Amino acid sequence: MSSPSHIPTVLVTGAAKLRGREIALKLAANGWRVAVHYRDSVTEATKTVADCAYLTGGAAAFRTNLGNETAVRKLVPTVVEHLGHLDAVVHCASTFEHDTTHNFSFAAMEKHMRSNAGAVILISQALHAHIQQRNDKLAQAEQKSGVVVTLLDQNLWNQTPDFVSYTLSKAALDAANSMLARALHPIVRVVGVAQRLSQTQPMLKGEPLDNVRQHLPESATACSAADTASAVCIALQDATLTGTTLLVDDAGVAND
Question: Which fold has domain 9-245?
């Protein structure tokens, strides 16, 4: 995969628990050193770091509020300072709060846009700058490209009246993926991964969950965090993928 002197290193945002943790562990098992990002879940992040370190021999935790622009701009440089380099980012962290078209507000939309879309753009900028600066010091044969993988959502293809601000932020992220893929080529690839309905989200229960279900095809089933993690691995490994989205369901992975 890489020379011993260059351990592939990935920043996974929202890696303390749920599917972010699953992805972090999957990548660690595949030889990645993982920078575990979290905001408030200190205990869970500590456990994820320990479990990732057991698998690869290296991991570290980084606490950042992705809704704060100043903090977001510092995240990649901080990871690089502590771990030496960064090759990829997997953006799992999401603000996920319930609202509808009836109680929608500018404040709710801005809160979701900051962490779910804006943070990705800033982090992608920083990864691009880091890799370009690193490559400038290397012979052409030694230069490496980077990857940004973002987690999208089935809501983009099965829209409901619920989670309006969240869905708008994911639509913005989907558009940002396409723009970033063009802007950052060939230094950084950008790939989306979108999973079908997941029942692991703490807000997705009761009436909101029922509303989502009724807009899905009868054949649709929830994909697991492990399915999503496998798709993320494909996105990271396949150098031909950029500016596209991998759709994940019980039948496997397909390109959008």
Answer: Rossmann fold (3.40.50)
Where are the domains positioned within the chain?
Answer: 9-245
Give tens-digit pLDDT for 18-47. Answer: 999 999 999 999 999 999 999 999 999 999
Name the residue among 228, 175, 233, 235 with its Cα closest to residue 197.
228
Claim: this prediction has a pTM higher than 0.85: yes
